[in-house]
Structure formats: structure tokens, C-alpha cells
Amino acid sequence: DDEQQYEDTAYGNEEIGPHTDGTYFEATPGIQVFHCLKPATKGGGETILVDGFAVAEQIRSQNVADFDLLTTAPIEHHYVEGGSSPSNAKIYSCCSNKPVIEIDHEGMLKQIRYNPYDRAPMRITSTDDIIRFYKAYERLSKLVNDTKNQLEISLKPGNVIFIDNFRVLHARKAFQTFDVCKCDLEKLETEPEELSIRSLFI
After folding, report:
1. HSE-up of residue 30 (Cα within 13 Å, Cβ side)
2. Which residue blocks in the chain are alpha helix, DSSP H?
3. Would you say residue 3 lies in a domain?
4. What gap in Å lies between CA 103 and CA 71, rounded to an integer?
5. CA-CA distance, 161 to 31, in Å (whole number)?
6. By three-state DSSP, how is residue 2 classified?
7. Measured in whole angstroms, how far is the alpha carbon of residue 45 from the centre of its chain?
8. For the whole prediction, is pTM greater than 0.90?
9. CA–CA separation, 53 vs 125, rounded Å?
10. 122: helix, coil or strand?
11. CATH label of the domain that carries residue 66
12. Over the stretch 35-91, which tens digit does the pLDDT of each residue have?
């Protein structure tokens, strides 16, 4: 197998389920930019999008207790680099006190942080609390993986889509090659002239 191997699945070509990116960063990337340079040579490569806010509202209407737990329980995420060699492994861990669903003081949705791939070990010590959390998390997982809540699209060469990483979960089917770029919402709002498509992909 001559294909380059990556520890971060974002830079590989395997299938990945719905998630948001950068959950282990204190400042989560605000904008995801997907630019299709060439089609998958062996089929696949579809992009799947999920409106995380719509899913969160479904949970709020179905089970308020689960919604309240997902908006208050602090969940830690991490990114492990060099894990194949324990002596060289580095762990980057942030957002230890950030919930899966973030709301403002009026109960309005602000951000979704959902990434099972980057979940760190739970720090909840109560068995009852762990069970309650996983039941709520399972409800969320089933909804984001429900095809009724998903939009599947096939990007063509030259197509570019901008995704709100605070709200929209993305997934992908296996494909060959791609480039990825991320930027902060604040930079997009304050310095849009510097974020041309050309500069994003150089």
C-alpha cells in the first residue's frame, strides 16, 4: 500500500461519521472549507451534512432531561499524536469544561461539539451520572446518524462549500484525495478580504 498514512482521520480517505471538528481546541474552528479538486477514482466521496441545531431541538422536544444534561455536563476531547509509539506520543487536550451542546443565557443554541473520534476518558465519577450521560449521548448519536437528518451531496471538481462548524456536522464516504482548510469565524467576519479562495488553498 503506497498511500500516505495519517494519524488524524481528517487527512486520510476512510469513511468518517458525522462530527464537528476541533473539539479539542479551546478556540474551535468556526468555518470548514471543502474544496473538491478531483473526483474519487473508485467511487464514493459523498459529503454528508447534519444540522446540529435541528437535532438539538429534537432532543429538547423529546427529552428535556437529556437536553439539560448535554448542555451542562463538561466533556473532554483530545487529539493524540504519535500514539503508535507510546514513548513519542503527545496528547493535546482542551475544552475539558465544554458541554456537547452550548446554549446562551436565554437558552438559544450557540454551538455543537460532537466528535466521538476525539472523546477523552470520562471524568464523571458517579456511576449514575455516567449512565445518564451515555443515554443522552446515545440519543444524540442516533439522531445525527439518522438519514432523515442528513443531506448527502457529491462535490464536483471546482466546487467549494463553506460550513459553519459551530452548527453543522459533516461526514464523508471513503474517497481518494482532498485538501482541507479551516479558519476562525472572527477572521472571516473581520478580514474577509484576506480569505480569498486563492489564499485559502495555497
Report:
1. 9
2. 52-62, 64-72, 127-144, 185-190, 197-200
3. no
4. 7
5. 10
6. coil
7. 17
8. no
9. 29
10. coil
11. 3.60.130.10
12. 888 777 676 788 999 999 999 999 999 999 999 999 998 888 877 766 555 566 665
